[in-house]
Design brief:
alpha/beta; Beta Polymerase, domain 2; 4-stranded antiparallel β-sheet; Rossmann fold; about 10% strand
Length: about 425
């Protein structure tokens, strides 16, 4: 296994008050990379910040160097960060990234957004030229594992957050929400999560009502809807097909008098505690009312279904890890194979020149035949040794085979 190191902190190890203070870019980190680090990638989300690095095999202080590198970008110093970060090496670091990409290490089990964030981290590292053959293979494997986890299991199929369950219940009641007018009432933490979930599903006909109308205007900016104050709530509800309420209030803000007579269906999902909607509203014609009790029952079922998929996802991760380890093993003998082929090519060119001196001037067609013949001869002679080296790369006797090849082909000792 190459010397891979992961330094990170996430929702399990660090409070949000610390995580929100840490915001860095790979472009900044790349300019300050320690010389002991040959490859670097950054995975940064609202729930985690992780550095993945390839380090010098004999470098024992690289974890500390990476901690200082991360601390240089933001106010929290190394001493403060040290209590919240984790260091993972080798196989453990590899397994961690594959679990992250597959949704097994997320705040919400199986959440889909993290796979796109891992992909973005990989693309950024490629663009910044901080990635090499080791991290390139690692991130490609993690992305492939994440895609397989979602394609071959139902780890991400069932809604597993309050907001996603709320949207799912509305969809069950009304069908597609694409052309439906959706109103979010209140933009505290739950309201913000609801808006984020709606935007992730590319639902754009979204309006917002809030005590402070200016905040509603800011929140609704990414959508095609309107901003309302709570005084305009009856008007806002009249224009909506789906209402999601998340206002912190000691008493209901929606009752029968709030909802004007209407003939088309209305779905209300009350995700507030205490409840925002008077339960009597459920008796109104064309109104379907869901509260947290309904959501929690669906959420429990969804999480149980996702949890049941964990063993299959771990099986996918194990298979992808085995394939990655084979690739890493082959990387160790790649320089030897390249040098073996380089020397064979030199011999081919020398012998072809000698043959041509004896043959004299030849036409282009004959020359092409000679080139193809000599290339084919070299490739076929080296085919079996190349296969055997790759096969033995991950075995205990790999060093003995490499030594034998070096001696047989007269190659320099520094190759590995």
């Amino acid at each position: 296994m190459p010397p891979i190191l992961c330094l990170g902190l996430n929702h399990q190890t660090a409070p949000v008050s610390l995580r929100e203070r840490l915001s860095c870019s790979l472009a900044v980190l790349a300019g300050q990379m320690p010389t002991a680090v040959s490859e670097l990638a950054l995975l940064s989300t609202c729930n985690r910040i992780e550095l993945y690095a390839v380090i010098q095999p004999d470098e024992t202080a690289t974890a500390t160097l990476l901690l200082h590198l991360l601390a240089q970008t933001q106010p929290p110093g190394p001493a403060e960060l040290a209590d919240y970060v984790y260091f993972l090496r080798g196989d453990t670091a590899v397994n961690h990234l594959l679990r992250v990409a597959s949704g097994l290490d997320s705040l919400v089990l199986g959440e889909a957004q993290i796979l796109g964030q891992v992909t973005d981290a990989y693309r950024t590292a490629v663009a910044q030229h901080t990635i090499g053959p080791v991290l390139d293979a690692l991130f490609k494997t993690a992305i492939r594992a994440g895609k397989r986890a979602r394609a071959e299991t139902t780890i991400s199929s069932n809604p597993a957050s309050v907001s996603s369950v709320a949207i799912a219940l509305a969809r069950q009641a009304l069908g597609s929400l694409t052309n439906r007018a959706i109103l979010v009432v209140g933009i505290g933490e739950m309201g913000q999560l609801a808006l984020k979930a709606l935007r992730a599903r590319e639902l754009t006909n979204v309006s917002v009502a809030n005590r402070t109308k200016s905040r509603a205007e800011t929140a609704v900016a990414p959508f095609n809807g309107r901003a309302y104050s709570l005084d305009e709530l009856p008007q806002a509800i009249q224009a909506a097909d789906v209402v999601m309420t998340a206002v912190h209030s000691p008493r209901p803000i929606v009752d029968i008098t709030t909802i004007l007579e209407r003939e088309r269906p209305l779905v209300i999902v009350d995700i507030a505690v205490p409840r925002n909607v008077d339960t009597a509203v459920a008796a109104l014609p064309h109104v379907q009312l869901f509260n947290l009790d309904h959501l929690q029952a669906t959420l429990d079922d969804s999480l149980a279904a996702r949890t049941a998929e964990i063993p299959q996802v771990e099986h996918i991760i194990a298979a992808e890890t085995a394939q990655l380890n084979t690739h890493y093993a082959e990387l160790t003998v790649k320089p030897l194979i390249l040098e073996m082929r380089r020397k064979a090519e030199q011999i081919r060119e020398t012998e072809l020149e000698r043959a041509l001196r004896h043959l004299g001037e030849v036409d282009e067609q004959t020359m092409a035949h000679l080139q193809r013949f000599s290339h084919s001869l070299v490739n076929k002679l080296l085919h079996e040794p190349t296969l055997r080296l790759k096969e033995k790369a991950g075995h205990q006797q790999a060093g003995e085979y490499a030594t034998a090849v070096r001696e047989l082909f007269g190659l320099p000792e520094h190759l590995s």
